[in-house]
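Collaborator request, handled under Task 6.
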Amino acid sequence: MGEWQRIFVQNLTVPPHNQRRRHSPPRESTAFQFILKSVEGDALKLRALDEMSDVEFQLRLSFFDVTYHHFFGKTWRSATKPLKAGLGHPPAVVFHETVYFHTSLDYPSIVLVVEVVATARRRDGTPQEMSCGFGIVHLFNSRSEPTNLNLKDKGLSLYHGTPRALLHPLLQEPIEMNKNLMVIDSCHLQCSLQPHPPLEAVYHLLPENTLVSSLQRIPGMLAAHEGDLFQKPRLMKTVTWYLEKLSIHLYPSLERFEEELLDLLMSDQGNSMLDGNTLAVQERRLHIGVHNGFCFVQPPQVVVVVPEAEVARGRTGSLQRKQGAGVRPSSEGQALVLRSRIHLTEMVHHPAFGVVLLLEYVFSVASGPDGKTPSVTSLTTPAYMHSIRWAVWNPSPDAASSNVVLPLQGGVQHNPSHVLVYKTPPATMSSEEVKQVESGTVQFHFSTGSEEQPAVAGKPSSSTKGEAPLSKNPPPTPSPRSPPSPQVLVSTQDYSRGPGLSISQLSVPPVSCSSKTPSQPSGGALPSQSSEALRQLQEDNPRGAITHLESNLSYSSLAQESPTADQLQELPFTPVHVPIMALGPHSESPSTGLTRAALARLRASGFPQLLDCNKEPVQIVDPVDPVNFIPQREEADLLQNNEIILQFLAFTRAAEDRTALETWPKTIYFTFQFYRFPPVTTPRLQLVNADTSKAAPFISSSHILMQIKEDGTLNLGSPGFQLKYMVDPGFLKPGEQRWFIRYLAEHTLQIDAWDGDSLLLVGSAAVKLKHLLRQGRTAVQVHRELEVITMEYKQDTAVMSGEILKHGGVKPIGVHAVVRGRLHLSLANIGHLCEQRQRKSISLPPSCSRIISSHDGNSGFHGGSLLSSNAYSAGNVCQAQKLADVDSELAAMLFSRLREVSATFQHSSREASVTRRRKLERMLSVRRRESQEGDAAKKASLITGRHEDRIQHARDLQIIEAYRERIKAESIASMLSQAITTRHTLYATFGTAEFFEFALKNPYNVQHTVTIETDNPELSVIVDAREWRHFKRLTQTTTPLEEDMFHLQDDLTPQVYLRPKETVHIPFKYQAFSLEHAATMQQGPTELMFSKGKEDSAAPWKSCGMQTKHIRVSFTASGGKLLAILSVNVESQPHVVDQTFRFYHPELTFLKKSIRLPPWHTLPGAPVGMPGGEPEMFVRCSDPNIICETKKMELIQHYGVRSDTSQSGLGLPTQGPGEPQDVFLKVAGGPSPQIKRFFLSIYTDPWLAAPTQIWQFYLHSLQRVDVSCITGQLTRLSLVLRGTQAIRKVKAYTSHPHELTVDPEGIFILPANGVQDLHLGVRPQSAGSRFVYLNLVDVEYHQLVSSWLVCLSCRQPLVSKAFEIVLPPGGGKGSNKRITYANPYPSRRVYFLHTNRPDLLQFKEDSFEIGGGETYTIGLRFAPSQSAGEEEILIYINDHEDKNEETFCVKVTYQ
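C-alpha cells returned to the collaborator:
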C-alpha cells in the first residue's frame, strides 16, 4: 500500500447531515485551537477497573449535530495516559494535547463531544474499554460567532454515560438543560477553546471537520523544528506539472462499452420513466485534481473528452440508445482523447501527493423524431450524471518526464471524490468480449515546469513497454503559430457536489465547429480558435460553451510560467475613482445672524417663550461672542440639573437654488442624536409660509414649522417643534458630569433634514453646542440660522492612463455642495436644583492620575455573607439573614417536599418565587394550627402534625448543613478572590486610547514569573517600550520605564519577572474601534404621541443603553497561583463627529471611494512640499468588514536616476513631501433600502493615541437603473413594482422632477402580492453622468416601500445652428426675440419645443404644426439675469414622438 493510499484510508470521514449540506451557499470556515489539559475527579476510579491491569485513560473527540442527532467527521483519539493520585489531591490524568480543526457549520447546535475512556486488560489478557463520562463544547453561540472558551477555575462539566446517549430522541436542545443528562459531581476537564486564524493558511490541505493533533504531519506542510506544527504553519514549495496526450481506453471498445452501459441504464428501474424514448450520451467529462490524502488541494479541473473517431471527422456527437436498437461496432477511434494540456500548479514533492482522475458521463433523454437528439434541446430536458471510472497516480518525488499508464477502478470501493462509481464488469455480463477484459486504462505523458519546451507538430513519443498506443491515427499537434487558446475552466464548486455547471449547460448538445482556418492541419483536428472568434461563439451559444474546454492550452501556459524577475511592478498609487475633498476640522454649517425683520416675523409667530427656574425669561446670548470655557466653574455650579431644549422654528428657501420651486418640500422631518440618548427621528412638520405680505420674493420667504395631527390637519397650538432632554445626576453615571460638560464644549450636533412626503434627503446642517455651557448662569439660549447643505456626487469617471502617471492628474471633481435652505434653530440650557439628595459621587481621577494600586481603597473584602454576592458597605459588619431567604438554590432544595405534596407547584420553574411559596405554606400551616387548638377532638392529629414538622425541620437542618459544607470551599475561594481584586473604571470613547498603569506587587519571599491574561482583546498590555514612552509623555506619568520588560509566549501572552517583595508598574491600554449601535437602519419619520397640555414636550427620552463592559485581568504566578486580579469597568461615552458623508450606491455592490484629506502642517505657515510638514496618516474603521487605508500620491521623476534602481531616463515614482493624502474606502452594500452607518477615525501618530478627526458615514443601498439618453429628448422606460403582503396607497417621488417624470403621477393603489408597472420619462437638461433618486412611499403610513438609483448617462445632441445675443443684467422686463425654422419634410409635421434653461428662456408656444417645406417663426422671451456673465441656452426641436430633430444654441451675454 502506497503512502497516499495509507493516508487516504486512515482519514475517511462521515459527512455532515445532508440537510446541512443542502442549505444556503457555502459559508466561510472558522479555525479553532482546542487545548486539552487534564481530567480531575473521583469518577476516574471505577470499581470495575480494580481487578484489571494496565489501566490508562484516553480522550476522544467527535463532532455532533444536536438538531439532527448525527455524529460526523472522524473520532480523534489522544495518547493513553496513566492516572495520578497525590496525597490530598483528587485523582487526575494529565494530557496536555492540542487539537486543531476548522468548520463552516457555524450553527449553535454543532458541538464537540469529549469522551473520557479507560483502557485496561482483563485477567485473561483481552483488552477492555470503559467510558468514564463525556462533555459537550459549543463551537458557536446563538449569533453564529465562534466561542472563546477558557475554563481555568471551574473546568468543563462531565456527564454520566457515553456519547451514544445523545442519539436518544428525548435529548433535544438546549441539551445541557435536559433532565436526562446527569452531571458527574466534582469531575471536570480542564480545557480551552479559541479561534486560531493562522490555520487559514492550510485550509486547502486540511478538509473541514477533521481533527488533527499538534504533532500530526499533513502532506504539504513543512515540519517544525520543535513544538507545535500548527502554531505557525509553513507550506512546502509548489511545482507545476503538465499532463498531455491523455487518452482513456475502455475495453473491448468504446462503442461496445457505451452500448452495454446504456442497456443497463435503460433496464434500470430508476429510468422506467423513459417510456421507450432514446437515452443518449451527451457529454464525457474528466475531473483532474491534486489530492494529498486528506482532500483535493484545489477544486478539480473539469475538461471534456471526446471519442477519437469523432475528432477525426471534425465533429462531436452523442451515442444514442433505444430499446431494441442495435449499434454496429466499429474498429476505429476506440479511445477518449483530450487534446488540451492540463496544468497542475499545486503539485508538491511529497509521496502522499497524487493526481486523481474521474471519468463522468452526462446522459440525456432525447425526444426528437426517430429517437434522435434534437438540434436545440429544451431547458426542461432532464440530464443525468454518472461517475464511470476513476484512477489515482501517486508519482515518486523525483519523478521525471515519462509516459504513464494507469488501470481504471470502479465499484463500491472508496474514492477521493466520495461519489458512487459504475461497477466493474462482472462475469455475468451479456457480452462475451466484456467478460474477458479489464475495467480500462488511462495513459498520458507528464512533464515538469523545468522541462517545459515549445510544442512542435509531429508524432507523439513512443510508448513504454506494455503501454497501449493512443490510437491508430493520433490527432496532429497544432502549429506553434496558432493563436493561444483559452485556459481550462476550473469548477468553483466543491468536488463532492459535482462541477459548477447548470442544468441548462448540461442539456445543450456540444457545439461542433465545421469551419477550418487556412493554417489548419489536414488531419481533421479541431482548429485552434482565436480569442475573438471564440468569444463570438460563446455569445451565440452561451449554454454550450462547455465544449471549449477541450481547446489546446499549450501556449497560454507559457505566459503564466514567467520567471520571478519578469514580475510586474506596481505603479504609483493614483485612484481611478475621483477623490472627494474633505472639509477642514470641526466643520460647522455657515450661520448668519437673523435680520431684524426676520426676528420680528419669528417673534410674531407665537413661538413658546422659555423661562428659567425662577420663572424669568431665559438670557439670550449672541452666537458671535466667544465662549470662555472654564470646567471648574461648571462643576461648582449648584444647578446640576441641565434641561437641554431644542426648538425647530422655521425653514427658509435658498435664493440661489434654481430648482427650489420644483423640489421644495411641503413637510419636513429631522434626524439627529444628542449625547448618548437614542437617535431621534422627529414627526413630520408642515411648512407654512410666514410672509403673508408678499413683499419679499417668494423664493426666499421663511416657512414656519407646524405640527401635524393624526388626522392630517395642522395643530393650531404653538408653532415649531420642541424637544427636551433632562440631564441630571440621576441620569448620569458617577463621574460622568465632567464628560457631559466636555461633550457640550467640543461636540458638533449633526442634523439631517428630510422631505416628509418623498422621504428624500433635503440636506444636512451642523451646529456647535458650546453656547449651551451656562458658566454659572441660571439659563442660556441661542438662536442659530444654519445652512442646510447637500453634497451631490457624480458617477466616478474613468481616468486615462496618461493622467494616472501625471503629477496631480486626478482632481477632486465630481462633487459639489448645494445650499438647499436655512434652518432656524433655538438651543437652550436651563439649570435646576436637584430634587433628590444626591448621593456621594465617585468623581473621576484627575488626568495625571494614571496609577492604579491595590492600596487605594478600590480593593479588599468589605464584609458580607458567604452566600451573598453583594458585600455590605459599612465596614466589616454583616446583617444576619435566613439562609433560605438569601440563596434561591437552597430554598428550592428545602421546598422539594412541599412540591411533591402540592401538585399546583409541579410545573413552576422560577427560583425567585420558591422562597415566597415556602413562606405562604408556613403561614397556612400556622393558621391551620390556630384553628385546631380549640377543638379537643383534633388534639391527636395536632400532636402528629407537630411531630412531622419536627422531623421535617430536622431534615431541613441536615440539608442546610450538607449544603453549607458543599459550597464552603467555593464561597471561601470567592471571598479570597475579592480580597485580591482591584477595581478601576474607565470612561472611553471611540478610537481614543485610555492609558493607565497597575502597580503589581509580589507578596512572596521568592521570585515569580507572572503571566498577564485578559479576557477582552480591547484591553492590552503595552509591551513595546517606544509605545510606553509615548503614552507616558502624553499623560505626564513619571513612573519608571524599563526596556525589554516583558517576555512574550508563543500565544503572545506577556510575562513579567518579579523579585521577592518587588513592585512593578504594568502599562495597559484600552482602545475600542467597534460600535454596537453603528448598524443598519431604515428610513422614515415617526409619529410621536403628545399628552394634553404639553404639546411642546415630547415623551421622556430614555438612555441609549451604552452597556458597561467588564474586563478581568488576572496576574498568575507559576503553578497557577493568582497574585492579583484587576477588574476594569469600561463606561462608553459618545464621541465627537467632525464630518458626515452620505453616499447613495446600488444595492449588493461595493462602494469604492477616495476622500482627500485636508492639508496638515506641523508648523504654521509651512509651505507645501516642506520636509516634515506633512505627518503620516493612519485610519481605523468601526466596522471590521470595511477596507480602509491611506495612501499618498507619488511624484514622477522625468529626469535623473533613482538611488535604488539602475534605470535612467524613465518616469519613476518617488515620494513627494507635502503631497495630498487620500483615504481609500471599500464598503459592501446591503439590499435596498438598507442604510449602513459606520465611523472612521484618523490619526497622525503611529501609536493611535487619539484621533485627530472622526468621520461619520451613511451608505444608502438602492436598486440601480441605468439610462442612456440625449439631453432635451424624452426617453421612456418602466419599472416593475411588486406588492407587499397588504394593499398600500403609494406615490412615486423623484429628486429631479424637472428631468424625471413618473406615470401614474399621483397616488395609486399597489395591490397585495401583485405586479404593476411604473412608467418613467427622462428628459435631462445637461450632458454628463449623474444620479437621480426615485422613492416609492406609502402615503398613509409614510413608509419607504422601494427606492431606486437612476444613473443617467447623457450626451449632447448635435447643434445645427448657433445664435448670439447681448442683454443687460439686473432687473427689467426681459427681451423678446424670434428665430425661424423650416420643415425639411414634404408632409405636415408637429414639433415640440424644449430648453435646458427654463428659468432664462420661455417660448411663446410650446408646440407648433407646420406644412411640408414651410417656415415657422418661433417666439422667444429671455428672462432678465441678476448678474453679468455668459450663458449658453439650448433650444430643442423635437418631433411628435419627442425625439430630437434639431438643436439650436443661443449664446447670451449679460453686460
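The cover message to the collaborator said: "Residues 631 and 742 are 8 Å apart (CA to CA). The mean pLDDT is 75. Please let us know whether this matches your experimental observations."
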